[in-house]
Design brief:
The complex is a heterotrimer. By secondary structure, chain A is of the alpha/beta class. Helices cover about 30% and strands about 25% of the residues of chain A. Chain B has a seven-stranded mixed beta sheet with strand order 6-7-8-3-9-10-11, with helices on both faces. In chain B, strands 2-1-4-5 form a four-stranded antiparallel beta sheet, with helices on one face. In chain B, helix 4 crosses helix 5, helix 5 packs across helix 7 and helix 7 packs parallel to helix 8. Chain B starts with 5 loop residues before the first strand and ends in a 10-residue tail after the last strand. By secondary structure, chain C is an all-alpha fold. Chain C contains twelve helices and no strands. The two termini of chain C are about 15 Å apart. Classes of the chains: A alpha/beta, B alpha/beta, C mainly alpha. The interface between A and B is large, with 35 and 39 residues.
């Protein structure tokens, strides 16, 4: 079996939160991510979905090196990305990059587009001005902008254009993995379509692997190869897009999908799955949570495990 | 035929410098909302959908100003009403809920008191009575432990809970028209579904008409009976919801619907490239030249 | 850099004050200290003494011109020292957080609690009298506000996408602070610096300086700062008329 591009094993992230005790005593640990494991293959688009507080953003930040994991191992092509063997920022930059959610805050307002794209190239040792210019021009064309626009400043561009610049910046160092953090949530509907098309085109053209964080399940269904559904720090269901969207099993996944306001579904005379149904058993085992009650984030979760229930389909169940 | 509750006729407004409008935002918008009807206004940023609602509420701030047209509410032109009259209508007969509830909620006053205020101000109830009604209102919007919650400040509440409080305040006086401007955009998907269901049920039960503004076609489809599509300050298409989605007539509407990734379409048809509006519309500026307003269909098939 | 009205007005006033100070030696009709004749004590303005005389019979106009030199030096130099200390401490505290942040915060609180003039006097008592001591004393005293502003600007800028992007692109912490964060907080810092220059002048002038000249230099600095801040803001740069 070929080695996965990225391997995450038993990732835990806990944050110390100052409690109410005297003189800073009574510190509590917030369990943001509780033992996530997954792999990313080359050319694949893996989406992590969940609602606020589920830990998907923290997971992404850990992969990028912007958040130190409390426990667990992240490996890129077999080499560790965290812990004692971890590479410095410069090395990491060539492996993983990120496209940010807010196109209005993700570009330095005081730097022209050219500066934002040239500076990282120079930082990583590219010196020939012609080479730098060439890369910048090629990248701008890739994302659908013209080289003349390079001298402008971020505030002169629309939201969609800024997102294109953000994508150009993420790709300028030619990383293999790109983390997409809600890449189209802040954009208008018609612009969203353009950016989604662009991301899919670039994935094919440049052989990119994506980890997409999103709460918009329609976009997730459209773009992903595999999906992880997260609920309060744990993966509750994992599988290919078909498995998740055609055969959602965990009650939380079913609630999420039932809640999507999709025009076709809303107008269909046939009712949607009633997520108020009794929590079913699966092969005689219970689900740990129904995805409704919020667990206490300050206590570690009850023991459970991911169980394979079909090809490319796993679900979290209480221990047998 | 029943008279419309809200009748907007050729409304024009824009950024005004002195008497002249330098930058038009609405270029002659007309539509009607019948009593008890849920009407959706959909469009992207810059389409003018939000300023329309502000104009109806009389909340336009300088330098925005109305430059023409009428807004008839139960036959009265809101634009020519004196401020005092408008204030009596606002919060009472026409109410509004926003995307960010914290802008509407006073952070220093308990939730119970803020709802009670509605009853005191508009219905002349005593504070004691109003507090009881406020707790009832919270129960109506399915807030658990309403007596306890009424004593909370808005700050520690979750987004979904705050939205429910805002809905409770807005529906306290059984208004004729509720304007909802992107009320669920900032909420998680499951919370959004609950809030939308709440709005739908409560308004249907009280016969409150709803003007629902959103950029999300799916949300509009789940609540509204009739939909208007806005682009560039004009209403470019209007139709019954089902008809609009099944058979969009205007290029922009077609582009918008084609740009949406639809659940289930990948299973059926494989991954289709999303429509790039700019590739099917040669010239965006010509979009506002054509309009498709479908006539209303009333019982018996007559207008 | 497009420079607006505020900038030009401020620049003009400041330039006048600077000119007055620089050319004092040549324009002043009298010597500021030695031409003291008790017979001329406290005269109202007239043809010889344009602004009248002070209690020692010295021409006030001359003293204003010479005084400008000192006040400007004090204002500019002490504020530069203030800003350097404040920016360095505030930016690193906001960026790195942890114990360093706690330390800087504690120090800032202490400095804000101590009456500044008393602290300055204490420093001068240690260093001895004289202009350099005055500059150091004022420089060490008033950095707290700049530090606070630098720290809170850094805290809010730190979570902006482009700062995280810079980290992802491989930038080291110091490079990020100086190329991404510092340029984006220059607006408030500059305003603070020019206000600080004005206040340093006021501190020093708790001594002799007549009111109008103070007013003009302080106003000049403030407007200069506001104008500079506006012209540094890229939004204002390309604003369409």
């Amino acid at each position: 079996m070929t080695q996965p591009l990225l391997q995450v094993d038993d990732l835990h992230v806990r944050f110390p939160i100052a409690g109410g005790g005297l003189l800073g005593t009574g510190k509590r640990m917030l369990h943001a991510v509780n033992g996530i494991s997954f792999s990313l293959a080359k050319g694949e688009c893996l989406s992590i979905v969940g609602e606020s507080g589920c830990g998907k953003s923290t997971t992404a930040l850990s992969i990028l090196g912007l958040q130190e994991p409390t426990e667990g191992a992240i490996r890129y092509r077999g080499q560790p990305l965290n812990g004692p063997g971890a590479p410095g920022r410069m090395q990491r930059a060539k492996a993983v990059q990120m496209v940010f959610q807010d196109p209005y805050a993700s570009l330095n307002p005081r730097q022209s587009v050219r500066t934002s794209l040239a500076a990282p190239l120079r930082l990583h040792g590219m010196t020939a001005a012609s080479e730098i210019e060439g890369r910048i021009e090629a990248m701008l064309k890739n994302v659908g902008l013209t080289p003349e626009q390079a001298k402008r400043y971020p505030h002169e561009f629309s939201g969609g254009q800024r997102q294109r610049i953000g994508i150009a910046r993420a790709l300028i160092l030619e990383p293999e993995i790109v983390v997409l953090d809600e890449p189209v949530s802040a954009l208008d509907v018609s612009i969203r379509a353009q950016i989604i098309n662009l991301l899919l085109d670039l994935q094919e053209k440049l052989g990119l692997s994506y980890i997409m964080i999103s709460h918009d399940l329609s976009v997730v269904e459209h773009m992903s190869d595999r999906v992880l559904v997260m609920f309060f720090g744990e993966v509750v269901e994992e599988g290919g897009w078909r498995q998740i969207f055609e055969a959602p099993t965990h009650p939380y996944t079913r609630r999420l999908i039932a809640a999507i306001p999709d025009p076709d579904v809303a107008l269909k005379p046939v009712g949607r799955q009633d997520e108020r149904a009794e929590m079913p058993l699966l092969a005689g085992r219970r689900f740990v949570s129904d995805g409704r009650a919020s667990p206490d984030v300050f206590t570690p979760p009850a023991p459970s495990e991911l169980v394979e229930i079909g090809a490319n389909h796993k679900v979290r169940l209480a221990m047998a | 035929m029943t008279a419309p509750l809200l009748d907007i006729r050729d409304l024009r407004l824009g950024v005004a410098a002195g008497r002249t409008v330098t930058h038009p935002l609405l270029k002659g918008v007309s539509f009607q909302i019948m009593p008890g009807e849920a009407y959706g206004l959909v469009g992207e940023s810059g389409s003018g959908k939000s300023v329309t609602s502000l104009a109806v509420m009389g909340l336009l701030k300088k330098p925005l100003a109305v430059s023409g047209g009428e807004i008839l509410f139960k036959g009265q032109n809101l634009l020519s009403l004196p401020k005092r009259e408008m204030r009596r209508l606002r919060g009472n007969r026409i109410t509004m809920i926003f995307q960010e509830p914290m802008t509407a909620l006073n952070p220093l006053s308990t939730v119970g008191r803020q709802i009670a205020e509605m009853f005191v101000l508009h219905q002349g109830k005593s504070w004691d009575e109003a507090h009881k009604l406020a707790v009832e209102a919270l129960a109506n919007v399915r807030v658990p432990n309403p007596e306890r919650r009424a004593k909370n400040l808005p700050h520690p509440m979750s987004g979904g809970l705050r939205q429910r409080v805002m809905i409770a305040m807005a529906l306290a006086c059984n208004p004729d028209l509720l304007i909802a401007d992107e009320p669920t955009t900032a909420l998680d998907v499951t919370v959004q579904a609950e809030v939308l269901r709440l709005i739908k049920e409560l308004c249907a039960a009280r016969g409150t008409a709803v003007l629902f503004i959103s950029h999300d076609l799916g949300v509009i489809a789940s609540i509204c009976q009739r939909v208007g599509v806005m682009y560039g300050g004009c209403l470019v298409e209007e139709n019954e919801t089902r008809a609009l989605f099944d058979n969009p007539r205007h290029d922009y509407t077609r582009g918008l619907l084609g740009a949406l990734p639809r659940l289930g379409s990948r299973s059926e048809h494989g991954r289709q490239r999303l429509v790039d509006i700019d590739s099917i519309i040669a010239d965006r500026s010509k979009l506002t030249e054509t309009r498709f307003i479908a006539p209303r269909v009333v019982e018996g098939g007559q207008l | 850099m497009r420079l607006g009205f505020n900038f030009w007005l401020g620049a003009t006033l400041t330039a006048l004050v600077i000119l007055a100070g620089v050319l004092a030696h040549w324009i002043a009709p009298f010597d500021p200290v030695l031409d003291a004749d008790l017979m001329n004590s406290e005269l109202p303005p007239d043809a010889t003494f344009w602004f009248g005389t002070d209690a020692q019979g010295r021409d006030v106009y001359t003293r204003i011109l010479y005084g400008a030199q000192i006040s400007l030096t004090v204002g500019i130099v002490s504020q530069v020292i203030n800003s350097l200390i404040g920016i360095t401490l505030g930016m690193t505290a906001g960026y790195w957080g942890g114990w360093w942040d706690d330390l800087v915060n504690g120090l800032t609180n202490v400095m804000l609690a101590i009456p500044s003039l008393i602290f300055a006097l204490a420093v001068m008592a240690v260093l001895g009298p004289g202009l350099p001591s005055l500059l150091i004393a004022l420089g060490l005293t008033n950095w707290s506000w700049t530090c606070r502003i630098a720290r809170s600007s850094t805290l809010s800028l730190k979570s902006q996408g482009y700062v995280q992007a810079a980290q992802t692109l491989g930038y080291g912490d110091l490079r990020i602070m100086f190329t991404q964060i510092l340029p984006n907080m220059m607006g408030p810092i500059l305003v603070m610096a020019t206000l600080g220059m004005g206040s340093a002048v006021l501190s020093e002038a708790a001594l002799v300086f007549p009111g109008l000249a103070i007013f003009l230099s302080v106003l000049g600095f403030n407007l200069l700062g506001a104008g500079l801040r506006d012209s540094l803001d890229p939004h204002m740069r390309t604003r369409k008329p």
